[in-house]
């Protein structure tokens, strides 16, 4: 079977369905925000077990998650619902 360059590029760009997200939500109702700031519009919420697939991380305004504080924010999407946005690192857990 032969693929043209555009079809092959599109095929390779599709993430593997079996790939496990690198992170999960640390608590129920974690806000997924439009911008990396506490006052930013909320696109949706993440729940433990749904997974969060981060595509980049950046330092931005400080954010407190209970007794923890971080300036590191992850941009990505909820692996279960597809909601895209920013989540502070203290609201995420490594999936390992």
UniProtKB/TrEMBL annotation:
Keywords: Signal
Superkingdom of origin: Bacteria
Signal peptide: 1-26
Record's protein name: SH3 domain-containing protein
Species classification: Bacteria, Bacillati, Actinomycetota, Actinomycetes, Streptosporangiales
């Amino acid at each position: 079977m032969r693929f043209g360059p555009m079809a092959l590029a599109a095929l390779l760009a599709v993430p593997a369905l079996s790939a496990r997200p690198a992170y999960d939500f640390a608590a129920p109702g974690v806000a997924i925000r439009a911008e990396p700031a506490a006052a930013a519009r909320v696109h949706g919420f993440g729940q433990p077990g749904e997974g969060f697939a981060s595509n980049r991380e950046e330092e931005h305004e400080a954010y407190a998650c209970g007794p923890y504080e971080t300036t590191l924010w992850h941009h990505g999407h909820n692996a279960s619902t597809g909601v895209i946005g920013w989540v502070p690192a203290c609201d995420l857990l490594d999936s390992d």
